[in-house]
Amino acid sequence: MEMTIMGKYQTLVIRPDSELDQHAAEKIRVGADKLLRKTGLKNVAFDMRRVRFMDSSGIGVIMGRYRTVCAIGGNVAVFGMSPYVERLISMSGIREIVIIAERLQDALEEVAGIC
Amino acid sequence: MLNNSMKVEFSAITENERFARGVAAAFVVGLDPTVDELSEIKTAISEAVTNAIIHGYEGRGGKILMEGVIYDGCVEFSVSDEGVGISDIRRAREPLYTGKPEDERSGMGFTIMETFMDSLDVESERGGGTRVTMTKKIGRVSP
Ligand SMILES: Nc1ncnc2c1ncn2[C@@H]1O[C@H](COP(=O)(O)OP(=O)(O)OP(=O)(O)O)[C@@H](O)[C@H]1O
Ligand SMILES: [Mg+2]
Question: Which among B40, B47, B76, B82 is annotated as catalytic?
């Protein structure tokens, strides 16, 4: 997993590795919340381009980050999904609470409310 | 037609989720599954194994037994733990229900297993462990 701070957009970009299961989700959860607290960033964007496998733990970690930043008026975006990841996301209903984007730039502009 | 069976026991730790779905995927390759069918099986197995680790054993570890049988172009998998068990199976299977709302759980595990497999059977007893059995027909169009 990699995390990048995009200061201009007040956004933490999280890029999970290829297998987003409970094992990976737990690491993202711990790492991301620590960085969010430390930096005070408001928004999170999940870069799903590397994700080949995901289960409900992936849905849970996205949902959880939404809860974290929603409390401070931030947004969550998810972008670069494969059709399989998109299918799981659609089943879960988190489409209604997070921003779905195709590319990084769209995701950043939408979470920061620049469009 | 190919008939086959397998049985594997492993520790209830999250490191083994990947191992379990890798074994399941390797077990069915002889049936010539599509990419989608493989993803569906891996996801369903991952859900059952994760549940055993975090709900069954509540993260304290234990043993998980995964069994597979192939017959007539169908695969049947079962995942068993000897953990805390489920007192109300019907409620547990409802979409969005989670027994751990304080954790980041979406309550989608059983719904995903049901959607991605053809059948799902849950046997459980409070204090008596849980066994989840799922079947799926592979290659619907083949004769
Ligand atoms: N092996 C098990 N042992 C004990 N309880 C279980 C087991 N599997 C499931 N449960 C119970 O059934 C509930 C529903 O399971 P399900 O997988 O649908 O959702 P979840 O695990 O809570 O969330 P998610 O799968 O979306 O992360 C669990 O919250 C738990 O209370
Ligand atoms: Mg689950």
Answer: B47
Task: Write down the pTM of the prediction.
Answer: 0.96
CA A95/CA A62 separation, integer angstroms: 11
Q: Is residue B17 assigned to a domain?
A: yes
Q: What is the pLDDT of residue A115?
A: 56
Give residue-wise pLDDT tens across range A33-58. 999 999 999 999 999 999 999 999 99
CATH dotted code for A2-111: 3.30.750.24
User: Which CATH number covers residue B14?
Assistant: 3.30.565.10
Q: Which of B51, B76, B82, B131 is catalytic?
A: B51
Domain of residue B76: give its range.
Answer: 4-137
What are the beta bridge partners of residue B124?
Answer: B130
User: B42, A56: Cβ pair inside 8 Å?
Assistant: no
As a whole number of angstroms, the distance between CA A47 and CA B60 comes to 32
- The answer to ipTM > 0.90 is yes
The CB-side HSE value for B55 (13 A sphere, CA atoms) comes to 26
Determine contact, residues B14/A26, Cβ cutoff 8 Å.
yes
